[in-house]
Fold Zn-dependent hydrolase.
Amino acid sequence: MNDLELQLHYPLGEALPDSGRCLEVVPGIKWIRMTLPFALNHINLWLLRDEMDGPDGKVQGWSIVDCCISNDGAKAQWEDIFTHELEGLPVLRVIVTHMHPDHIGLAHWLCQRWNVNLWISALDYQVARFGTMGPTAFGGERAADFFAMHGLNAPDTVAQIKARTNYFPSLVPSVPEQYHRLLDGTVLQIGGHAWRCISGYGHAPEHMALYCDDLNVLIGGDMMLPRISTNVSVYEQEPEANSLDLFLDSIDKFKALPEDTLVLPSHGKPFTGMHTRIQQLHDHHRDRLAEVMEACAEKPCSGADILPVLFKRSMDLHQTTFAIGESIAHLHSLWFAGRLQRKLGDDGVLRFGVTPA
């Protein structure tokens, strides 16, 4: 554990669910951990004991929260879960916190497999649906042009990004044709407990965390992670977003919840100490912003110039596209605050310099 993690508490210790099995975190909530083929090598998914109205009265079963990417390995793990962990009961609905592939990738398959509805925010549903509509929806030439404008313009890198035209649909081949809309403040009755939706921004278009006051449990999705800081990026679809400020404002909503809330994150282990973690994240980004300001005070910087300031390790292309999005987010936070000004150079690259006093 790092020093920041030591300030948090992990009620389950080092316990992790086995592949294709669950670990009960509190009565009626089961933890699933599935493998991802990325540097971030796992995602946590959740089964909630539930009941819903059916044609002949109440039906007992389970709600699934988040899905994993679409691949054969994840489907096989789900089939093991269905065989060994559902206690002979059906899946009643699929809830997705947000539209990133590791969360929504298998929503279409799960909903078809159990003939149930998808529950998600409208904005994330529409963005995910758009992303599945063809190889030019996300990425490709528009992403390459955007990143090049922010200094990621080495010819081989540009060529590789242009070639990534099928990334999203390869992980999310489809989304259900219908959905049930989640809004900030929506209350879901799940297994006799009220779960309130809490919207979050900056990481995804309209992320929905779920909080149950009865159980004092927060399904935090990617908005509240114990070990790593959530990726907060600017991309070509919204090229002048202020994603970092949106994210920091969003996590402050969780301050209204009890300090001893059990947080179920999408990555890492269940933990308590959420107020401490919120402050850690604010401190982390405050320090990174100070580093960005220092770099821009020496000379005007592009997003690519900020990469080694924020990230001290080598990265592959997949990681680099996330990292430059985060570099731009930090530059934009300072730009929107009036501390930096930007200028498009003769080489077509945007650079940010300190605003004159």
